[in-house]
Design goal:
mainly alpha; 2 domains; two-stranded parallel ribbon; 7 helices; globular; Transposase IS4-like domain-containing protein; Transposase_11
Length: about 140
Amino acid sequence: MVITGGNVNDTTMMAAVLEDIRVPRAGKGRPRTRPDRVLADKGYPSKANRAWLRTRGIAATIPERDDQIAHRRKKPGRPIDFGDQQQQRYKGRNVVERCFNRLKQWRGIAMRSDKLARNYRAGICLAATLIWIKTDLINTA
């Protein structure tokens, strides 16, 4: 996770978040730092983000905003493809939104009332850990 000020938009932070990803491998070896695919909502379809993903060989499932679709329709030869496979993949995005909703049930996280960023980050880590433990206990019972 990357903690920023409240006035920083998500689009500009996508690269920073993806660069911090470290996924342990099943066997030996260093952690993976590049996902196979990124699922994102309509807040992320900027040219810069798509170019950044393309240069790193990361597939993207990001629907375009209505204004971008209208702009593309004016230019010949620029197809708009968010077909059935993309729509099926995008259905997995609700997991992320549900996670944010669970975190925001904690009043301090939803209000961002902490003065220091490290305290806010600690609160998010604590809440995420407790949610994970509770979910894991429910799933194993």
